[in-house]
Amino acid sequence: QVIVQDIDYSTLDFRQQILTDIDTDIMVGPHGAGLLHNIFMPDRAALVELFIDSSQANRHFHNFAKWQGRKYFSKPFPNPIPTDELLKLVSSAINSIDLSKSY
Asked: In angstroms, how far is CA 98 from the centroid of its own chain?
């Protein structure tokens, strides 16, 4: 079962943000500081970083995910993002999750 949530972290206090992170198996977002939340995600989690309009030069979040032993997916996208390509990328992340691993 896949549950998708659209969460605006600016509406959450820091404690709520961390509680959300610990219960997130896949985080999807554009390159930016908000992806640093991946450091609080479960070990089995995956990060999907979207590089929109050629912002792919930085590898910060790739490195954080890899150092934590998490799966990492990324792709450059035009704006607007083609939803079929985004769905393929997110599907790959979903299929990479090892549900036998505990949090």
From this structure: 16
